[in-house]
Write a structure and sequence with these properties.
Distance between the termini: 28 Å
Number of strands: 16
Structural class: alpha/beta
Helix content: 10-25%
Number of helices: 6
Strand order of the largest sheet: 10-9-8-7-11-12-15
Shape: globular
Strand content: 35-45%
Order of helices and strands: EEHEEEHEEHEHEEHEHEEEEE
Radius of gyration: 18 Å
Length: 260
């Protein structure tokens, strides 16, 4: 799959929760080959902001040639993106990474999709693309449950956990999974590292294969700089040590391939 750099046209920008923005981009060359779990790198106009910002794909429409990203404003780069207007252009590079193996959930099987915080957006396209049934478990801080309605329209079932108990089950996604006694044939998950550790442990406990998408700060985004690595159970052929490049070898890994 070829990585492409292009000037993508902004078609819509909306704040969907406090500090969280949805952006649609017109980028036909990338949309026609992108897959759920992959990401794009976005470049800022500000020359002081040298490195691109990696943001996962929330929705992909190859027919319309559009991509949707959902991101939280955390610094100068994402703040700049949140203020873009329809009709403006952004330089992007993609699609990057390996994506989720949707073939692991064929018809007749059930996947448990687990997301927390800004790790929730990639689950939307994934829930559309798997051939089997999807049960989605999502964790939020409070009642500001962005993308919840859209997930409910694509998945068989959506289970919500909130830290403050304002909606759904009080606690985290693992608390919700245990309370609802959920089972499935495969796990797909994206979110903060503490959550992924819990998902990895639960998957191994229940003997369910778990595919985890790791969130990490990146520099080049193409595997050249080794700035984003995780510990692996096997020796990496590129670095000859026990690590994997998250941007190049991932961001999605089988849980048994990595140490968290």
């Amino acid at each position: 799959m070829a990585k492409l750099q292009c000037m993508a046209k902004v078609t819509a920008v909306t704040e969907i929760a406090e500090g969280i923005f949805s952006m649609w981009l017109l980028a036909p060359e990338i949309a026609c080959q992108a897959a759920p779990g992959q990401f794009i790198s976005l470049y800022c106009k500000n020359e002081d902001t040298l490195l691109p910002r990696p943001i996962s794909l929330c929705e992909i429409d190859p027919t319309e040639g559009t991509l949707r990203i959902v991101f939280r404003v955390v610094g100068a780069g994402t703040k700049e993106f949140s203020k873009r207007n329809p009709g403006e252009t952004i330089k992007i590079l993609g699609p990057l990474g390996n994506g989720f193996p949707t073939s692991q959930c064929p018809p007749g099987k059930t996947a448990i999709l687990i997301g927390g915080g800004i790790g929730i957006p990639p689950l939307l396209q994934l829930s559309k693309d798997i051939s089997g049934e999807a049960t989605v478990v999502v964790g939020y801080r409070n009642a500001d449950t962005f993308l919840r309605k859209e997930l409910e329209s694509t998945a068989r079932r959506v289970v919500v956990a909130t830290e403050d108990g304002s909606i759904g089950i009080r606690g985290n996604v693992i608390d919700a999974i245990r309370e609802e006694k959920l089972r499935g044939d495969v796990i797909y998950s994206c979110g903060p590292m503490p959550m992924l550790r819990g998902v990895k442990a639960w998957g191994e406990e229940e003997k369910i294969p778990a595919w985890l998408s790791l969130e990490e700060k990146m520099a080049c985004g193409i595997g050249a700089c080794l700035a984003c690595v995780c510990n692996s159970t096997e020796v990496d052929h590129h670095s000859m040590v026990h690590n994997k490049r998250i941007c190049k070898d991932g961001p999605v890994f089988l849980s048994t391939e990595i140490e968290l």
